[in-house]
Design a protein that fits this description.
This protein has five helices and two strands. The chain has about 120 residues and is mainly alpha-helical.
């Protein structure tokens, strides 16, 4: 009887299959703090988006990075406000204090009269 040779293709042999992809969580957090999307981070790392979406630790690191990025934006906005930028003051008042522009419209047959006032909230 002829002896069968073992095939080196496929199966459960040692080292078979795709090597495990190691995620660099520190890099992921830095990219997320720059407001990068998960798809952009996956592209940068060279892995699939699905791989990151199913990694619980990545999800936590990504949220932490996004939160840091938002705090950085807010810090810069407040610096602009402190430098006396009236537009930024108005915008921040609308976002955080519920302030809004009050617009009164009066309609006549031939003209529209618009009276715009700032509401201090």
């Amino acid at each position: 009887m002829a002896e069968k040779k073992k095939s080196n293709r496929g199966g459960a042999r040692k080292g078979a299959g795709k090597p495990k992809f190691i995620i660099d969580y520190e890099t992921c957090e830095k990219l997320a703090s720059m407001m990068c999307t998960q798809a952009e981070i996956a592209s940068f790392l060279g892995c699939s988006l699905s791989h990151l979406e199913h990694d619980k630790e990545f999800q936590e690191v990504h949220k932490k990075g996004l939160d840091k990025g938002k705090m950085s934006v807010r810090r810069q906005q407040l610096r602009i406000l402190e430098d006396g930028n009236a537009t930024m003051a108005i915008w921040l008042g609308k976002q955080y204090l519920g302030q809004r522009d009050k617009q009164d419209l009066e309609v006549t047959e031939k003209h529209i009269i618009v009276d715009i006032e700032e509401d201090d909230g």
